[in-house]
Amino acid sequence: MFSCKQATELMSVSLDSKLSLYQRFALRFHLLMCKLCSRCWQQMLFVRDAMHKCSERAEEIDFMPDHSLSPEACERIKNSLREHKNT
């Protein structure tokens, strides 16, 4: 049986390419036995499907924000980051 690390690596590879028969069988067996990896696999599939749906509707989605921060707010944030960096 694969370790969880090996299983997650195979899950990731399987999203981009086809696994060998042995790899598919071993991964499915691991997923049947390991609830955490099974949950991870479901989450990977969810993200993959969401990305596909998003790319199909890319023209409909406005990725530019309707508003931005004021120059004063930007300066306050920069100053705060500088202060925290120096501490």
Structural write-up:
This protein has a domain at 1-58. Helix content is 74%, strand content 0%. It is built from four helices and no strands. The longest helix has 22 residues, at 35-56. The protein is elongated.
Keywords:
about 90 residues; mainly alpha; elongated
Shape: elongated
Average predicted confidence as pLDDT: 87
What's the N-to-C terminus distance?
Answer: 49 Å
Largest sheet: none
Q: How many strand segments?
A: 0
Order of helices and strands: HHHH
As a percent range, the share of strand residues is under 5%
Radius of gyration (CA) equals 22 Å
Pick out the low-confidence regions: none
Helix-strand makeup class: mainly alpha
Helix content: over 70%
**Count of helix runs:** 4
What's this, in brief?
The protein is mainly α. The protein is about 75% helix and about 0% strand.
Helix-strand layout with pairing:
Layout: H1 4-16, H2 21-33, H3 35-56, H4 71-86
Helix pairs in contact: 1-2, 1-3, 2-3
